[in-house]
Design goal:
It is a single chain. By secondary structure, the protein is an alpha/beta fold. 36% of the residues lie in helices and 16% in strands. The protein is built from twelve helices and eleven strands. Strands 6-7-8-9-11-10 form a six-stranded mixed β-sheet, with helices on both faces. The protein has a five-stranded parallel β-sheet with strand order 2-1-3-4-5. The longest helix has 16 residues, at 28-43.
């Protein structure tokens, strides 16, 4: 990995125009990783943009550079280097033909012109499609933020308090505040070093962990009341409708944390949150605490992916259609 980190640093320092692209409906890991890398590029005087095809949650505005994120695809056409972070594929990062940026076959992605930028892929999802000119992926990492942390350490980058806070945010979010199965000795060691580097953990907790509105908690109550168990699958599920979002004034992004809440449920092997989306699709989030269950395999059958203990999918149809598919798996 050290050689890849060196190559990454060389590419970043040589590039004239860099775009950091994060996945749609970004979480704290995507945003924290991007903010930390952006802070590094800013320190080096590099010209860069952060691109996200969708809106991002308001509760991450405390991170540096997050307020400058753009959804304007025009920035992609100007880039000679695109760093895709925390995304298993290019589609999830919003990088497709609609962006006016020609995606090339992997063997052709050699860079050299604005119409053919080099793509760097930094990710920790086991389902990653290895789509980059340079792939820096580690499915054993607790978060993409941990990979960025390892990059900084390997390249002897001085981690500022802003970088440390951003990276700690990524770790806190993807480990569910260091409580889920993704928590490892390496992630805890990284967190300790980030705290010593000036990371503001109370700030992260205040904005990310302890920032639920009254209406969001009311929505949680409705969702928990709907919990059902499919005995033959040892799976508990619940759902959110578009009507629920409208009733409580909560956005899809605002409800992201509910899937992790289901992970606290005992007596079941798998939990599933199914959500209607405003564009007429169905999203699902699988969670498990079992070491013998890989929910990414289930998500893959529904067109998604993720980690062994946390995975998701987006599909067409209805909530009932999704449940029927799961019953026949």
């Amino acid at each position: 990995m050290q050689a890849k980190f060196q190559e990454l640093n060389n590419l970043l320092l040589k590039a004239e125009n860099i775009v950091i692209a994060i996945h749609q409906n970004p979480d704290g890991d995507a945003l924290g990783s991007a903010a930390a890398l952006a802070e590094y590029l800013s320190d080096k005087g590099k010209n860069f943009s952060i691109y996200c095809a969708t809106a991002h949650p308001e509760n991450f505005k405390f991170l540096s550079h997050v307020n400058a994120i753009t959804a304007e695809a025009a920035v992609l056409s100007l880039a000679n280097l695109i760093v895709v972070m925390d995304s298993g594929d290019l589609r999830y990062a919003g990088l497709d033909s609609r962006d006016g940026f020609r995606l090339l076959g992997r063997n052709d992605r050699k860079g050299g012109g604005n119409d053919n930028p080099k793509i760097i892929n930094i990710d920790h999802h086991i389902s990653n499609e290895q789509f980059g000119f340079l792939n820096i992926t580690d499915s054993q990492a607790s978060a993409t933020a941990q990979i960025v942390y390892d990059f900084f350490r390997s390249e002897r980058v001085a981690i500022s308090p802003a970088m440390a806070t951003a990276l700690l945010t990524g770790l806190v979010c993807d480990t569910d505040n260091f409580t889920n199965g993704g928590t490892t000795p390496a992630s805890l060691e990284a967190a300790g070093h980030l705290l010593r580097s000036g990371a503001n953990l109370p700030l992260v907790h205040r904005w990310v962990i302890k920032n639920s509105s009254l209406n969001l908690l009311k929505l949680w109550g409705i969702v928990l009341e709907r919990l059902e168990k499919i005995e033959e699958k040892n799976l508990a599920y619940t759902y959110i409708t578009n009507e629920d979002y409208l009733r409580y004034g909560i956005t899809e992004l605002g409800a992201e944390g509910i899937a992790n809440l289901l992970n606290k449920l005992g007596g079941v092997q798998i939990s599933l949150l199914i959500r209607e989306t405003m564009d007429g699709k169905i999203k699902g989030s699988f969670r498990t605490t079992s070491d013998n269950t890989d929910v990414s395999a289930l998500a893959k059958k529904l067109g998604g992916g993720g980690h062994a203990k946390a995975a998701g999918f987006t599909t067409e149809g209805t909530i009932e259609d999704v449940l029927n598919k799961i019953l026949t798996m």
